[in-house]
């Protein structure tokens, strides 16, 4: 891939305490999740029997309508929540809770507001690599901020940064820990369209340079095709399931200009949109914020939230 900025020498980083082995295989095995029903008389199944194998270094997106359980699934992979049945494995080992081997980037940025951008990344680096001295921690932090195009804003507080800048800090923090897997929950949903494009490019550049298995939840079909090796399509809840997994066999590096000229892209886009329209949103007892998809946007291939 062509890099627009000098690539920091990630290989020369000192050995680290966070789990840095080259593997990062994520396995979701027959995972089901039930929540207590809103009426309090029983349980509602959000998704049932979801299985997904994500290979080391692979970029897989999960796409589906609002309320189908994407964030619930990602939280379970992160270890913030437990599946009602089934299991999550990282490199064959069962996940019992959160860990630095799986970093999550949320739509809402989730930066610590009382810390500068630099310190937000630095504290994560310090906890991932406790034997490093402060100089090593600072160098590593600077390197990852630089990779996300954040060389000059380190001293700024999150409140003084745009949404795009905040999410760059969130991504720099997540990658700087050198996790096995990066879990992204609609990371660009609150960012304007133009900025979103450049952060997507930076994400791919970072993924290309730093590596990591990525599992991204999105409701944006174009974003999913641009970024992913495979896309898992989820049906609506309750009892959602992964109905199809679509291979995105479009060579990398991918540019938006090439994609829109590509027959493969149009074919994949149509297939995924067709799936989403066929699984059009129906209000369910699970989700009282449901809204119909009859206003499905034609020009913007995203699933309305
Ligand atoms: N803690 C919870 N208790 C009860 N229901 C929940 C809880 N978390 C999520 N849900 C329900 O589970 C469903 C899936 O939610 P979510 O995973 O946020 O969907 P998505 O991310 O696909 O929009 C929704 O109907 C939501 O209301
Ligand atoms: Mg969600």
From TrEMBL:
Region (Disordered): 1-25
Gene Ontology terms: cellular component: plasma membrane
Membrane-related topology note: Peripheral membrane protein
Keyword Nucleotide-binding part of the UniProt annotation: yes
EC number in record: 3.6.3.-
GO molecular function: ATP binding; ATP hydrolysis activity; nitrate transmembrane transporter activity
Ranges of residues in domain ABC transporter: 26-261
Main EC class the enzyme belongs to: hydrolase
Full protein name: Bicarbonate transport ATP-binding protein CmpD
Organism: Stieleria neptunia
